[in-house]
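EI: anyone free to look at a 480-residue chain?
SC: sure, send it
EI:
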Amino acid sequence: MGANNGKNCESEGKGSSSISSDVSSSTDHTPTRPSKNAVTSEGSDLSMRTLSTPSPALILTPQTIIPLHGNNSNSSTVSGETVALVHPPPGHHQLVPVDLLPDNTILQVFSHLSTNQLCRCARVCRRWYNLAWDPHLWNAVRLTGELLHVDRALRVLTHRLCQDTPNVCLTLETVVVSGCRRLTDRGLHAVATCCPELRRLEVAGCYNVSDEAVFEVVSRCPNLEHLDVSGCTKVTCISLSQDSLVTPPTSPPSPQQCQQISIRYLDMTDCFSLEDEGVRTIASHCPRLTHLYLRRCQRLTDEALRQLALHCPAIRELSLSDCRLVGDFGLREVARLEGRLRYLSVAHCCRITDVGVRYVARYCPRLRYLNARGCEGLTDHGLGHLARSCPKLRSLDVGKCPLVSDSGLEQLARSCPGLRRLSLRACESVSGRGLRLLAAHCPELQLLNVQECEVPAEALRLVRRHCRRCIIEHTIPAFY
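SC: here you go
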């Protein structure tokens, strides 16, 4: 990289400044101001230089004392007179300590900088420019800012990174632009066109991104494994065919529709337009999915879960929080994932009862995390069945389940001694007896939420005494 830039140093005298400034100006809105000591002269050839460099003579007041050699006792100080520090002649180059560092050391420092900081470093000098654009530093691009011209920044960055390998960037594997609300399909087009080795893309909260841009990324980046489009309300499908949503389910699939995407992690939280047909297409194209998050996709029904269980048997984590049309039949389909499922969230799925929980408990014995907050149909019977069938349960949230009482807690405490996190918020039927059983049988408990529960302070003190690492969240003034 350095040798290549060395050959083009004549042409990069201006280009290096323009490319880096395009990115940094998009990421840094602080204007560059001339020095207060700058001297301008209309008839002088040095007038432009003095606007960006210190003045030839820096006048210090008599009260100012500058150590010339650190804290050396031999350094002389002057008082009672004015001192003028004169800069070296224009042709004389004075090395500063950072210039003495080898390239490998500077590259090591640069490897810890963010994308914005690297772009600023590229504007310092020609040597730093060559080092800042070393391909090994650009395996990831992370940009932030709601007002950032992210389309332009991505276009400039990908263009510069393609200089060594024309029209393609083989080093960039991660692009994170979450929260950049000005991102459009044009920015993702630049990424998809130039970055075939892309493995991770996060565009959370970029609501201007559409299905067309996602299609272009997944079709041009065959190694993509991690995709976060949460909050992209225009995204309704992840597929390799643009007409996936138009083709009726009964028609035979085209060869392109039978192709598979290597995505393993997919977050479509708050994709409000996602429907069962979109999930069917995703499941058929992404059979390697292991992590899937569909929070607040309120148009999904049990049919979507049937398609997931049919095409994506490797799912380990599944979140269906606030999918209010999902019920017990959907959990019966989820139970077909059997021993692979470790994480399940069905918070506020009000149609779920003990029946659905029993299906999951019976066929998913390795379940570690369950969030059933707000499932008002869950009772002690379902909780007991879960505890007996999933003894390795580590985290459970049954907050706002009014039918859960001390009887369910007793079965949970005796069957799941390794429980570490438990939320009982607003469980009105829970009393001190259930908490005492938890304290006796769950010594590894690390978090207990009993907010809005009427439990005695003595029971909480007993939990704190037996579970020394436990953080107790409560609304009881008597407990301290």
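EI: The CA atoms of residues 121 and 128 lie 6 Å apart.
SC: 👍
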